[in-house]
Amino acid sequence: MLQRLLPERGFYLGLMFQEAAARHGRVRVTLDRPLDVAPDAGTDLGYTELADLVDDLAARLWSAGVRPSEHVAILKGDNVDIVLLTCAVSRIGAVPALLSPSLDGQVAAVLLDRLHAPWLITDRATLESTLSTVDTTLARGVLTVDEAPGNTIALAALAGVPRRPAIRLHPREPSLITHSSGTTGIPKLAVHCPHTMWNRLVPQQALGRATRGEAAALHMSFVHSRFYHLLGVLLHFGSPLLLLVDPDPAHAGPLLAAHRPGIVETHPNTYVLWEDLADAPNGPLSNVRAYGSTFDAIHPRTVRRLLAASRRRDPRLMQLYGQSETGPIAFGWYTRRGADRVEARRVGTGIPGFTRIRVVDERGRTCPPGATGAIEARTRGRILTYLGAPESYARQVDRGWWRMGDMGYRDRWGALYLLDREVDQISTVDSTLEMEDELLSRFADLREVIIVHGPGREPVPVVCTRGNEPLDPDSWRRATEDLPALAEPVQCRFEDLPRTATWKIKRLEIARQLAAGELPTLSTAPVGG
């Protein structure tokens, strides 16, 4: 009743930089590569310049013919201008549909078809690779950030057109489309609106208040809704920003050392990569007060190394659990004092006033504390629907409760523990995620370990080592003798594992490749250590 009496609020991406510039002026924003839409602008900008660029791009899009409520697919090479183009599309009341640069052509074609003849913003390289087999003439128009052949419009050719006032859609109207990770098949298009996005933003602003104004370094997927909510928090509090496209420690390390961020957020698998920075010269992580982790579970070994790298008095690692369809539904944090007692399966508690969590059995009955079941959530931040697949959306909703697709349990105090994805369960293993955490803690040189179904449904560990060094079979045998029986490990390069835009491992695809003999593996000849 109270919610109906109060005016509806909305989070509008098109106004985000304008409002931050008005509030804070020219706060520094550093990029690790020039923008494709403004290559001459350099890599050191500010809130004011970025707000002006968003306004300029919005005017160019309007001049090209883009109008309110129309879908605008953005599929181009990975760079920060994906963010600026998203805000520009939103600024004129159109609906940005963010497609990952990592999509293959077949999947991109399916998603573009579901968008029903959208406008398309892309670049020459993407047209000649991902989109080379896609019929782009089905789009309303193709806009490019650089010069491209064919029937395309270069945004540069529209420079100098008159600016236009911003347009706000109704808070319940579709305003952003992102896609799910695609770890279990073709990604689904998630439709957001300003109202549900605001209900995600507010609790995240409350969580971020303690670190307001701290310099922040981000390496995240620019096509994921989480990035925009975090950016909204940081811009609101006036944080200087370092936005990274390339996570390679050799590239990111010097930039982190130069900017000494107090806030760092990236994908859990990137944090594993950045463990190498914990003891690096010049202390790239030495000033971190708060790490943020979303998208996937983070390993205890990684938590300990990250917190140990900071010289701040009380650094913390904040973990948010959720998905694209819901936003964060649970939160928790780790401290250096408790790092040795990290329970990685504990993903936190519900967000008071915004989310509720329950665990149910196969008949939909609430499980008692400690009993494993399916995780469901009720949240004000839930998306409106899946575009082109409303029946899939309906199957996941039960009287307002959203099926997360994960298995877990709650303890007597209400904390949630994540055990496995429903589709990844292996009958002989209580929790593949828990076993993976244990193996990583026992092998300092492991970059990643994923346990998947083998051709005979046996649990197969797929391992990646740092520097692709051969796995020592004797050490492996000793370390796994007290664990449930596993097949012989299969060693791969991390770069060869199928991953999503947020570096989540596609477990089902690994299992399929393994069964078909298509998984690229390193030499199976073991080398003792």
TrEMBL record:
AMP-dependent synthetase/ligase domain span = 17-386
Pfam short name (any one)? AMP-binding
Q: Which InterPro entries match?
A: AMP-binding_CS, AMP-dep_synth/lig_dom, ANL_N_sf, ATP-dep_AMP-bd_enzyme
Q: What is this protein called?
A: AMP-binding protein
